[in-house]
Amino acid sequence: MSRTDKAQLRQVRAAILGNRPDTSLSSTLYPVYVAVIAAGTYGVPAAQQLFRSINEKWLAEHARTPAGAMAAVTLAAVVLALVRLVGRVHGPVVPPLPYLELVVASPMPRKVTLARYWRVSRGGSTVGGLLVGLVIGAGGAIANAAPPVVLLPLALGGALFGLLVAELWLRGQLQGQPQASSLGFGRGSRPRQRRRNALALLGIAGLRRQAASNVTMGGAVLAGDLRTVRLDAARPTTHARRVRLRASGPRAVIAHRDLLGLRRAPWSALYGLGFAAAGSAGLMLSLMSARIPTVAPLVSLVLCHLGFGAWCEGLRLHADNSGTSRLLGLPYRDTALAHLVVPVSCWALTTLVVGAGLSLAGLVEPAELVWALGAGALLAGTHLMAAFRGLPPIGVFGPHAGLPAMIFWYAKPLLATLVVGTGTAAWAARAANPWTAFFWLLIAAAGVVTWGLALVDKRDRRS
Amino acid sequence: MRDVLVTDSQVTEGDIMLARRGAAAPAGREADAHVLRATGVGKSIDEAVLLLPTDVELGIAECVVLRGPNGSGKTTLLRILAGTVPPSEGEATLDGSLIDERHDLTRTAIAALIGAPATYRDLTLADHLVLISSTWSHVSGPAAARPDEILELLEIDHLAERFPHELSSGQQQLFHLAMVLVRPSSILILDEPEQRLDTDKRDLLTRILLDRKADGSSLLIACHDPTMTDALADTIVDIQPA
């Protein structure tokens, strides 16, 4: 940045601020201050409790094995891949719309006008990584899962990881731009060139889109409207347009629609497959011994919930459409049930294949396979709940409720999966006769499906 | 001959006389035909009056056009007669039964385009029509050919493989009309179907709707286009603003 650029930017900032004092430094440092206090007050005790609940000895033993290192590397790779995807929707450099239209769109160099926003995001990401490293290290040391000496390397590693996250976040934003490839900034360009030109190559159209989306999403989050967030974040479909939906019976065509939807969103189908396969394998393995920590079925069920959810886009779109003119010839509830055919079939197929593989390897028995198949009913019910929950009730926004109440309200379907699934899985792993636990899993799943259908009927009455 | 009815709060049920340019229902359609009637129907929310009490009757193979300035309650009346909004006063009936969009009889008889219908972002235009048509196949028989016919009829068959977000606003309107026309119905309720269409497409739509009427369908339309109104209407109802 040249002196002229700096001087020009100072003038712009002075014009924007007018007579008001410049509070940008304090408003940047305040979140860091809050994050440090939150990490110390809540983060470290929570990490310590988490390590203890997992079983600190088991964790200490496994953390130093190649499998432990592989798990950590895989987790880091997943986080980095997700960050890059997030960057396509919401990057690290998203100035407010007025600044974008009046300053960024001016002839001033873009790497000058955008530098401040990039520095804040990169700094925040680095400090965030440092704090996460410190929280994990301190929690592990207090819980005796790791020696205190790991604190320093974990903090440094966390800061470096945060820096890497910021870089990949920006890469994602650049790749998500409408004009990315025409500027030579697509996949073919060299890394050094990409780094040097990163800010300069952020186009006004892409920045405007992200800034506008920022406003929409910000409003939707404040209103508790996650449906708007999801629809705004989704990329428009353009794949497989020549593949036609086949005419068939009223219910069969809904299932064909969902299959076609997955074909046109292959990443959803694939990540659903990956999560569901990992989740069902983890669930089956965790049923094999009472010595396996309870956290194993818990984490497996989170993966199952995410995987099953990736196949439920048709169900969610049906729920999104309530309140508009209905053109389908099926009753509302029947359409919702027909939308469950594809996810339930995908779950059954994935579980059967994974279970058969584990069974052939001698790792699980047929009983565990049946158990995992039964969990599909629970997942169907909780995704009915999730798709048709609608907007949070007014009480969630009241002065005595706040963010935790909203998070709890949104998390109810996931909590239902975790509470019912983990409870019955832990019972089955420890009981002499696991079929009693399986019976109660099915009873609870029927209850959850009934709850989900009640929400469907409620939306039907309101629309 | 066409009658123009003026309805407002001063007009009572008994004051309105309905006389229509009289197309009789084509033979063989009586079994599917329905009579839609609004008697003193009004709508208000708290103290805001959206629609003054209004009477409308739509007989078999007739076309009633609603006219009125913006905000007079045309869309609200259409919503009530499509069974998606209950009236605050009066009664809306289909063959003597209260209209409710959730009832099979209402949904089978009435196809409504009031505002933009829901679309799936991952389906093309052709897929949407196949989906709608197939879910009505228990009423109308196999759905294989109908979607292509409707696209061709509205002259948007070249857009069959586009997704809804890839259409212009006029093309969107034609697509929405196609979604309503592809499903079987004996009553079509359309809210300003001429919106965003150029002159040629308005003429095309008028011809399609006249054909529908000749086939025995009844039409209830809110319309601001005088040419379309002249061509289609058997009865014109002028809605007065609240």
What report would you give on this structure?
The complex is a heterodimer of chains A (463) and B (242). Chain A has 463 residues and is mostly helical. Chain A folds into two domains: 21-222, no CATH class; 250-462. Chain A has 20 helices and no strands. Chain A has helices spanning 3-17, 24-54, 56-63, 66-89, 97-104, 110-113, 115-142, 151-175, 191-197, 204-222, 226-233, 250-264, 266-286, 295-310, 313-320, 332-338, 341-360, 366-387, 403-430, 434-462. The longest helix of chain A has 31 residues, at 24-54. Chain B is α/β, with parallel strands linked by helices. Chain B has a domain at 3-118 and 187-239: P-loop containing nucleotide triphosphate hydrolases (Rossmann fold), CATH 3.40.50.300. In chain B, 31% of the residues lie in helices and 24% in strands. Chain B is built from eight helices and ten strands. In chain B, the strands form two sheets. Chain B has a six-stranded parallel sheet, sandwiched between helices. In chain B, strands 3-2-5-6 form a four-stranded antiparallel sheet. In chain B, strand 5 and strand 6 form a beta hairpin.
